Amino acid sequence: MENIPAPLVKSLNELGLSTYEANVYAALVVYDNADAKDLTEFLSISKPSVYEALDHLAEMGLAVKRVSKPARYSAVSPQMAINLLMGNHKKAADLALAALEKLEKEKVKTEKEEALWTIYGDKSIEYKICDLFGKAKSHIWCMIGERYLPFIENIQIKDISLLLIVISDAPGLEKKLREQFPGKNADIHIIPSEKFAVPPPFAPPEFEEIHKLMRVENTLELIVDDEELLMIPPFFSGTVSVLNTRNKGAVLQMKLFSQFNWKRIIDGEEFPFPPASPQKKADVKSAKE
Is the whole model's pTM more than 0.85, yes or no? Predict the structure, then answer.
């Protein structure tokens, strides 16, 4: 079957044809019309496999069988064939989605809920971010580093409460995001990365060393409806993994911490801790200046 390009066969496989069907259809495109013997010789596959593929292609409407002895076949146009395959995929996808959504409503809750799940790799993280944005019902809290901006650039959400903090130095980003997430319920802030170099008054003596290890562009804190949390601490580089939980206590604890931390980042408000020492205040003031 070296006559048919492997990438073409793979593409037709992904559209629902078996390898034999993909090769036979492609061979029919080459021929004006052909019988099973022609195809067997051209593709170097067994005659039973060719007949089986031809029968299925004819049943799907991708091949036309001519009444003759031996029977001869011709391919419908590639454009028509792709339209038919895409239509079949769309119909199958719609049926599957309806059935799966019905099953989702009947979800069985287990008594034991794992505290934390770990999700690896950018592609899996992108899918999870899109999934959470899509199923949010009341509110979304999100602080996101520049690394993940491409993951949300095509996301559209319902008119629900959105607090979005993006760590980025990209010019014009706030305008772009406000156009993407319009409405009075969207609260969007762009925070320059340099702001994270300023130590808070409660910072430990090791803050400078900690900051050297930070990769703020990898930061991700996403809380949806107080029900689910995604979090990536800003200390990873390369391939990252995200912590994911639906544990109510963990979600609310992270939200409480984020409320204080994000207010500090956005408004300059600090944690309600005991006052810092005069020397500490002087150090903070000097760092801010």
Answer: no
Residue type, 210: I
Domain assignments of the chain as residue spans, ordered by start: 6-80, 117-288
CB 234 within 8 A of CB 265: no
Enter the tokens of residue 62: 């991708």
Q: Are 262 and 165 in contact (CB under 8 A)?
A: yes
**How is domain 117-288 classified at the CATH fold level?**
Endonuclease; Chain A (3.30.870)
Percent helix, percent strand, percent coil in the chain, to nearest 5: 50, 15, 35
Structure confidence by residue, pLDDT tens digits, 41-56: 999 999 999 999 999 9
- A 10 A CB-CB count for 139 gives 14
User: CA–CA separation, 144 vs 86, rounded Å?
Assistant: 36
- DSSP string across 27-74: HHHHSSSEEHHHHHHHHT--HHHHHHHHHHHHHHTSEEEE-SSS-EEE
Q: Are 36 and 51 in contact (CB under 8 A)?
A: yes
The burial class, CB within 10 Å (0-12 / 13-18 / 19+), for 20 is buried
Where does 6-80 sit in CATH, by number?
1.10.10.10
> pLDDT of 241-253, one tens digit each?
778 888 888 888 8
Sheet containing 34-35: which strands, arranged edge to edge?
34-35, 72-75, 63-66
User: Does residue 210 have a pLDDT over 90?
Assistant: no
